[in-house]
Amino acid sequence: MDIPLTTIILMNPNGTIQIGTQPWFKGKKVMKCYQCQSNIVFEGKYNQIKCTKCNTVNQVPVIQ
Ligand SMILES: [Zn+2]
Known about the structure:
Elements: E1 7-11, E2 17-21, E3 29-32, E4 39-42, E5 48-50, E6 57-59
Antiparallel strand pairs: 1-2, 3-4, 5-6
Bound molecules: zinc ion.
């Protein structure tokens, strides 16, 4: 099952995962899970994003 493009996955510094939906990606960042190639949309300064499809923890590249 593909993650809808409107699904936003956030990993908080304490390790919890937030999943929300928004119609726009304004201010959001998108990366592909390197394991299953799913799109992961997030915002904020997170060092790691956990894919909810395959549970792979992706290192977030530094984005200026
Ligand atoms: Zn994945």
